[in-house]
Amino acid sequence: MRLLINLMLIIFIFIMFGTFIYLYQYNQDPTPADENIMATLRPQTYPVVMYSTLDCTACDKKKMQFIEHHIDYTERVMGIDDKAPALLDVLIIENNYEGDVIAPIFDINGHMLTGNPSIKELSEYW
């Protein structure tokens, strides 16, 4: 019984620590380096389509960056948006993409970008 209580306590501590780290990440102000990058981006001429999943931390961070920097985007969530899998398949075929498809995936004017590219990298295509 004591072992079970200790195990539950350890699990509770890990969950609380993980929650703290998660919340801490989203309450950070943009660094001056981020602000300098945003000032040098090309003006956005094409919308960004982001394919994401429900449990994707990188997707959540990218959404926050888009909102913070007023970047026009549309999110297609796999498992919720019925059209998302078919649209992503078309994008993969059109780009002759052969590799791991890891969320978030971006479609900018028909260009497929994966691997969680930076805002600066994304701006090269819009």
Estimate the helix proportion, in percent: 40-55%
Q: Tell me the span between the first and last alpha carbons.
A: 60 Å
What would you call the structural class? alpha+beta
Rg estimate, integer Å: 18 Å
Order of helix and strand elements from N to C terminus: HHEHEHEEH
- What is the oligomer described by this structure? single chain
> Number of domains in the coordinates?
1
Mean pLDDT: 84
> What is CATH's topology name?
Glutaredoxin
Which CATH class applies here?
Alpha Beta
- Major sheet description: 4 strands, mixed
Give the name of the CATH superfamily.
Glutaredoxin
- Based on Cα principal axes, name the global outline: elongated
Q: Biggest sheet, strands in spatial order?
A: 2-1-3-4
Tally of contiguous helical segments: 5
As a percent range, the share of strand residues is: 5-15%
CATH architecture, by name, is: 3-Layer(aba) Sandwich
Count the E strands. Answer: 4
Give the uncertain stretches in residue-range form.
Answer: none
Question: What is the fold's blueprint, element by element?
Answer:
Layout lengths: L1 H25 L5 H8 L8 E5 L4 H12 L4 E5 L6 H11 L10 E4 L2 E3 L5 H5 L3
Parallel strand pairs: 1-2
Antiparallel strand pairs: 1-3, 3-4
What would you say about this model in short?
By secondary structure, the chain is an alpha+beta fold. 48% of the residues lie in helices and 13% in strands.
Describe the protein:
By secondary structure, the protein is of the alpha+beta class. The chain has one domain (32-123): Glutaredoxin, CATH 3.40.30. It is 48% helix and 13% strand. It has helices at residues 2-26, 32-39, 57-68, 84-94, 119-123, and strands at 48-52, 73-77, 105-108, 111-113. Strand 1, helix 3 and strand 2 form a beta-alpha-beta unit. The N and C termini lie far apart (60 Å).
